[in-house]
Specification:
This protein is 85% helix and 0% strand. By secondary structure, the chain is mainly alpha-helical. It has two domains: 1-227, no CATH class; 238-438, no CATH class. 45% of the residues are buried.
Length: 438
């Protein structure tokens, strides 16, 4: 028997999206506090150690970001189909993957961290402090990765207020303990790491409480279904496709920053300032993309083509409204934001020159961002992977053609082309999603 869902309207979409936008807004605050607190100790080496340590551990955990997206799409479809047993089974599978991966990283931490520092070398002093930081943070791996699965499971059920609560608790605990361990107890880099360790395990505890309804039924003990070979293979297939797609997407940004550094330090710094505008846009649009994941997945699970189309239309309408507002805000206030972000006059002037590209970027990228949510909800991850290969290839060609003649303007133009092609290629595949809802 299928579960009755509330009427799909703008209010429902906003109730899903707004908590995600607010949740994402808290993410950069934590990084600022970590840096500010350790900065009070007056040693640049400590700031560098926390910075490089956080980058390494975040990159390790990021590899399992697919667990959030894959869990959302599959769970939303199970909800739409009214398959309560599979809803619980997906939660258990996600937790097993999260805990398994986390304890694996703990077991192989020595070669893992050695390899990380080979890729991201630093001075001996910075590396020594960073290792101390990482040797503490690695013990939060099971919690941090399992939270991806919990978050995806909650989003699929449109319980984004719970996601916001989870984020607020983790960041709140982290910030309070940062001040206590570092400034009161004088624990330095280790204090920052321990604060995050406690925050992430506290987040897992709250997360398990928030998803307790997944354990309050007999279905979660159905080990035959949980370890069903076909269902496990489908989950692995979905998650593998998303991981490949995400690696290519991240590679695009890494190449962008690497090529930007080939000009000069001023251009590199200007690009770093301007790329923050793109991050802000992505964080904001995540709210409506996540809403699309949940609503599209439920509609597809229910085999309701009309509901599927309405889910895509309403979430996309709000996505377009948001990017128009953001592009307008960047146009009006962009120079003022740049002025605040850096005191270096040469970096400011370079940033002003390339500002038009980031004003246009939200408009160019809205289709890609929103269709990502649609395809994740529909679990058409093979199409996502394949279209990302096509888009990435065209991006590389654009770089080869534009960079020699137009320099950093060519670099930004190639990034805009990357956004547009991602949207166009996914749009080309969209009709297959609707046809699968029949």
């Amino acid at each position: 028997m299928k579960t009755m869902q509330p009427k799909l309207n703008h209010k429902r979409v906003l109730s899903v999206a707004i908590p995600i936008v607010l949740s994402n807004a808290t993410v950069p605050i934590l990084g600022v506090v970590d840096t500010a607190v350790i900065g009070q100790l007056g040693q640049a080496v400590l700031i560098g150690a926390v910075g490089i340590g956080a980058v390494i551990i975040t990159a390790i955990y990021w590899l399992f970001g697919f667990l959030r997206m894959g869990t959302t799409g599959l769970t939303a479809q199970a909800i739409g189909a009214g398959d309560k047993s599979e809803i619980s089974a997906l939660l258990i599978r996600a937790l097993i993957i999260g805990f398994g991966a986390g304890f694996f990283f703990i077991a192989v931490q020595l070669p893992l961290l050695w390899g990380a520092f080979q890729l991201a070398p630093a001075s001996e002093e910075v590396e020594a402090f960073a290792k101390n930081y990482l040797q503490i943070r690695i013990y939060s791996a099971p919690a941090a990765i399992a939270i991806f699965g919990i978050t995806g499971w909650l989003i699929a059920q449109e319980r984004t207020r719970a996601v916001l609560l989870l984020q607020l608790l983790m960041n709140g605990v982290n910030i309070v303990l940062d001040f206590f361990f570092v400034l009161q107890l004088g624990w330095g880099v280790e204090g920052v790491a321990i604060a995050t360790l406690i925050a992430e395990w506290s987040g897992l505890a709250l997360g398990l409480w928030l998803v307790r309804d997944g354990f309050n039924v007999v279905y979660w003990k159905n080990w035959i279904q949980i370890f069903d070979r076909a269902r496990l293979w489908r989950m692995a297939e979905v998650n593998g496709d998303i991981m490949i797609r995400s690696i290519l997407l991240q590679a695009g940004f890494v190449i962008f920053m690497f090529l930007g550094s080939s000009f000069d330090d001023v251009i590199l710094a200007a690009n770093q300032v301007l790329i923050q505008f793109l991050h802000i846009t992505a964080y904001a649009l995540d709210g409506f993309a996540f809403a699309a994941e949940a609503l599209v997945g439920q509609a597809l699970g229910a085999k309701n083509r009309g509901l599927l189309r309405r889910s895509v239309v309403i979430t996309s309408q709000w996505g377009v409204v948001l990017v128009i507002l953001m592009a307008s805000a960047f146009f009006v206030f962009g120079d003022k934001v740049i002025h605040t972000m850096t005191t270096a006059q040469d970096v400011r002037m370079a940033s002003y020159e390339y500002l038009p590209w980031v004003i246009f970027a939200p408009l160019a990228g809205v289709a890609a961002w929103m269709l990502d949510g649609v395809f994740i909800g529909a679990t058409r991850t093979g199409d996502m992977r394949n279209m990302m290969f096509v888009s990435f290839s065209i991006y590389l060609v654009a770089l080869v053609v534009l960079l020699p003649s137009f320099g950093n303007h060519g670099l930004w133009a190639a990034m805009i082309i990357f956004y547009i092609v991602r949207g166009v290629t996914l749009g080309f595949k969209y009709p297959h999603i609707e046809s699968s809802a029949d």
